[in-house]
Every structure is written in structure tokens, then in C-alpha cells.
Write the C-alpha cells for this entry.
Amino acid sequence: METTSARLLLWVPRVLGVLVSVFIGMFALDAFSGGPFWQALPDFIIHLVPAFILLALVWASFRRPWIGAAAFTGLAILYALTMSRGRVDWMLTISGPLLLVGALFWWSWLQRGRMPA
């Protein structure tokens, strides 16, 4: 029988990964800021690509948490170094949740070997 903390450690990074993906996907709504709906739809779909990539990473990390640990941490560092343009608020808003999810996947991966089967 699993303990509550083991279940939490299993599910929290996965759920937070989905929530981070939804958060990133919300920025795609900016495509509808002006103009007709049908003209903004292609931009909206293009802006959803990062959210879909994060969802794919969560899916790939479900049984292999090391993938999530490496990918989310790597994406957090990549964003902080390339896209934040020295803006600490952007860095914390985007890289912060990505780094948190990466750390939780890493913790889940480390504890996986210690959990009873």
C-alpha cells in the first residue's frame, strides 16, 4: 500500500506540468486582440505549439520522470538565457514554474527507486 506522500510525489509534478502548459497556452489568446476570428485562428494555433510541446513532455514523463526532470529544467534554463532579455519578471513568470515542475519530476524520479513496488 502506497503512502499519501508517495502518491502526492507521483501526481503533483504531472498535474503541475499540465497546469503550466495551460498557463503557457493562455498567452496564445493574445492572437485574438484584433481583427476577424478567421484571420487570427492560424496565429492562435501557432501560439499554442509551446503548450502542446509541454503536454507531450508531461505525457512522455508519466512513466519516465527523468525525461520531465531533464526537459522542464532544460526549458527553464533555455528560456532564462535566451528569451527573457534580462527581464527578471519574465524569467520568474515562465522559467519559475518550469523549473519547479522539473525539480518535482527529479524528486519523483529519485524517490521512485525507494518506493515499494
Q: What stands out?
A: The chain has one domain: 4-112. The two ends are 9 Å apart (CA to CA).
